Amino acid sequence: MWTSLRRVPAFVLTSMLLTAMAYAGDDGGQGPSARGPIFDITHFDVLPVNTDTPDSFEQAAYTALFAYRNASETDPGSKSFRVVNWLAAPNHSQIIDVWSSLDAFEAHLAQPHSTDFRFAVQLPPPLAPPFFNCCIGSPIDDRQYPGKALRELIRYGSDTSQAAGQLSYTVLQQIDRPNRFATLEVWDSLTDYNNWQTDQHTTQFVTKVMPLLGSPFDHRLNRLCGETYVDNTGCTPAP
Prior knowledge:
The protein is 28% helix and 30% strand. A hairpin with a 3-residue loop joins strand 8 and strand 9. With 239 residues, the chain is of the alpha+beta class. Strands 1, 2, 3, 4, 5, 6, 7, 8 and 9 form a nine-stranded antiparallel sheet that branches. It has seven helices and nine strands; from the N terminus they run H-E-E-H-E-E-H-H-E-H-E-E-H-H-E-E. Helix 5 runs antiparallel to helix 7. The protein has helices at 2-5, 57-72, 102-109, 112-122, 151-160, 190-197, 200-209, and strands spanning 10-17, 38-45, 78-86, 92-99, 141-146, 166-173, 180-187, 218-230, 234-237.
């Protein structure tokens, strides 16, 4: 598995919750601005086995997911639409999509392919068109973030962007919970990411931020999904 990650970038999503925070933004201090770009991160767990039919829940869910991704890429305001597969649990994935504005994201949610996908993977047959035998083991968890955050996170992001193997580093602040942050990192390999975790810039950042956290860091390492899904293994590497 790790050999394939040498050819496929590793996506790392880290969530953190600060116990308290004063915020002064474009909205007069009420919270982060909802101006673009808007990052939407959607978490979902697929039931690993369908005992009622020969076809698995995973195959049905990822067939629907890939069709949803392909249709969404042409929506107005779409900047990026990626599906990543959690290495620790192959049946857990995340959609990471970027939109030019909150209006563009909300218009995307109203598109028929968006509503079809959500009904398909959350409703039992025969209520779930156009797919069936579905699929989700927990409610879909959507969170939207504007591309802004705290000064310390941004400073650490600047240091991280200079690290060997670092391809992209984005700091995100949740729109409806301004004390919840996430970082989205893309690394050339898992080795490069692990090396950076022991670097003095990372250890100093963690030391500064830990006293402010209301919950532990939540690190999730993912790889980019390909065009197919292999049961109990996960998404195939992208071509």
